[in-house]
Amino acid sequence: MNNTCRPSFATSNTRDMGVYLHIPFCRKKCSYCDFASYEGLEAYYDDYVTALCTEIKLWAKKYPESTSIPVQTIYFGGGTPTQLSIPQIEHILNVLYKHYPCNDVIEVSMEANPGEIDKSYLQDLKSLGVTRLSYGVQTFDDSLLTLLRRGHTSSMAKQAITDALSVGFQSVSGDLIYALPGQHLKDIETNVKTLVDLGVSHISIYGLQLEEGTNLHKQVEQGQLLLPSDDENEAMYDCMLDQLASYGFERYEISNFTNNQAYSHHNLRYWQYKEYLAFGAGAYSFYTDVRRNNEPYVVPYITRLRQELLPVVFEETISETRSVEDFCFLALRTKWGLSKLNFEQRFNQSLLTIFGNELEHLNKQGLLQQVNDSWCLTRDGAKHGNYVFSQFIR
Ligand code: SF4
């Protein structure tokens, strides 16, 4: 780990904004997914787009001061944003551009699923200014893809990435999930190697999270599927880290890797504790130290916006104590780590005064190391991230 290639905005005091746009539709609901995403709602796409655009306008009206902050990143997440047509995406962007200053945007990112869009759609996305694509690949094992109820095969995933690169997207990312039922070390190696060989510049890896209420959770609970043991999980995790490093992919966040500084600038905002607005059903925003989340279900979301009501169902002002905790553990997730200077600038207090004992203790345990002005996770620290982060809870 080092902090020599900090993005220019990482230490910037100027205020800028990220915008997250949630598109909660999927062609098929995956067996492990508990996100706000739904299949079979095609009939609502038009009404949803109208509602989302109304939400942007209402926000701009209710919080006029937010409309003077330059937007730096735009992220279409889901769900599967590419379920929408190009005119629908264009309409959303135009409404956003009309109400928020978007001249300084450095990244427009979009999540996509393999096998659902063709080259002509990709070309149109590029023409709309989308700069980055993030594909949910998950694995190149067809039987596991079927088990996860993914809507694509391994050959579709390869084709999708090849198409995106051939159309000229410079920044293409692939997500992988490890610790899947029946998965072995060899599968993991194949997955990473295949993604790298395809030419992606960014890879995200996530351990399977078994979420209650999902089909996969039921299957595991009923003993129909067996998950790898903790030791096997750890071996897979270590194997991926070594393999990615050997391919020249640096880890810049616990789950994210790039071989040419193709960072997800929007996601960096989350770890840098910066503000973002979020529109759409189930979306979470963070603005002026207030976290808000929206109505997660599509029909009530649309209904509220038809009545010109903001769809916020929960709102919480973050206390100073909680801000300090969040700031620390989010910063520690990244390779730039927890900077003493950034902390002091943000909170007008010395990091060492508040957390001196914890930092020293974690350092002695080999979980944190000091790099110039910052405290960073060691490789062991990243493996035991939850323990390290818990030390910053006051
Ligand atoms: S495509 Fe993504 S959001 Fe949609 S169901 Fe699958 S995991 Fe969930």
UniProtKB/TrEMBL annotation:
Biological process (GO), any one: porphyrin-containing compound biosynthetic process
Gene Ontology CC: cytoplasm
Molecular function via GO: 4 iron, 4 sulfur cluster binding; coproporphyrinogen oxidase activity; metal ion binding
Keywords: 4Fe-4S, Chaperone, Cytoplasm, Heme, Iron, Iron-sulfur, Metal-binding, Oxidoreductase, S-adenosyl-L-methionine
SUPFAM superfamilies cross-referenced by the UniProt entry: Radical SAM enzymes
Keyword S-adenosyl-L-methionine: yes
A Pfam family per the record: Radical_SAM
Segments forming domain Radical SAM core: 11-250
InterPro entries: Aldolase_TIM, Coproporphyrinogen-III_oxidase, Elp3/MiaA/NifB-like_rSAM, HemN_C, HemW-like, rSAM, rSAM_sf
Subcellular location: Cytoplasm
Protein purpose: Probably acts as a heme chaperone, transferring heme to an unknown acceptor. Binds one molecule of heme per monomer, possibly covalently. Binds 1 [4Fe-4S] cluster. The cluster is coordinated with 3 cysteines and an exchangeable S-adenosyl-L-methionine.
PANTHER family (alphabetical): COPROPORPHYRINIGEN III OXIDASE, RADICAL S-ADENOSYL METHIONINE DOMAIN-CONTAINING PROTEIN 1, MITOCHONDRIAL
Family named by the database record: Belongs to the anaerobic coproporphyrinogen-III oxidase family. HemW subfamily.
Protein name per Swiss-Prot or TrEMBL: Heme chaperone HemW
